[in-house]
Amino acid sequence: MPYTAASGFRMYYEEHGSGFPLLLINGLGSDHLEWLHQLPVFVSHDRVVVFDNRGTGMADVPPGPYTTAQMADDAASLLRALGIARAHVLGVSLGGMIAQEVGLRHPDLVDGLVLGCTGPGGELSVRPSPEAMAAFALAKGEDPEAELRRMLPFLYTDACIRERPEEIEGFVRRRLDHPMPPEGYLAQLSAAVTHDASSRLEKIRARTLVITGDADRLVNWENSLRLAGRIPGAKLVVLPGAPHRLFAETADAFNLEVLRFLKTPQEQTPEPGRS
Fold this sequence. Notes:
Blueprint: E1 3-4, E2 11-16, E3 20-25, H1 39-42, E4 46-51, H2 68-81, E5 87-92, H3 94-105, E6 110-116, H4 130-135, H5 144-151, H6 158-163, H7 165-177, H8 182-194, E7 207-213, H9 222-230, E8 235-239, H10 246-249, H11 251-262
Parallel strand pairs: 3-4, 3-5, 5-6, 6-7, 7-8
Antiparallel strand pairs: 1-2, 2-4
Helix pairs in contact: 2-3
């Protein structure tokens, strides 16, 4: 199994396809298996790199708490260990926060930047509702499956939960089959809560796509408007009716927008605006 210790701990990664490198960064508690809706599509165009963030999947669980800056350095270390001088970087949720820091801390590595269902943190952030925060808090002794099902209404639309059991049960089963250590989850959660790129977004120089859904009950889509408004030249795409896990529930639309953006020559990247 491929591992790298370039960042000081064992990090699991996989490479698929060929072409220009595309690094995918997971959200809170997710591992590399969460990209099942993207890999079959993206590998037809790019050399796709997926990996497990510190604290989850087959990566080690260094002592926490973690920061998004620290996790961005992990991602950059992986790219450099693979001999990749420049890549597209796509992150969702917590992964989108990490991707912001990659763009800020390692601008030489980033060509295209895709920030999905995420926020800037700090004074620009629209915080999750108390109900959402409670759903993602670990309760000591609670059944793991009950914890996951408590989160579902904040990740998917009610219609998807009712009508697409294969998606919902697949998500639950993957999480149960590959459980995340509680200490890793809490360390990652700390990174999400303390993330703050709000005063530095104007320094991002990579061409950037900000993509979200207007039915996101976890990370309010207003966060994406604020991100796109502060990042120079950013393009904003809002998928109507899409939830937090837009890359799963509305995968076809998400993938189309990502590929359309990444394959657009830099000089032709559209101006900011809602698509």
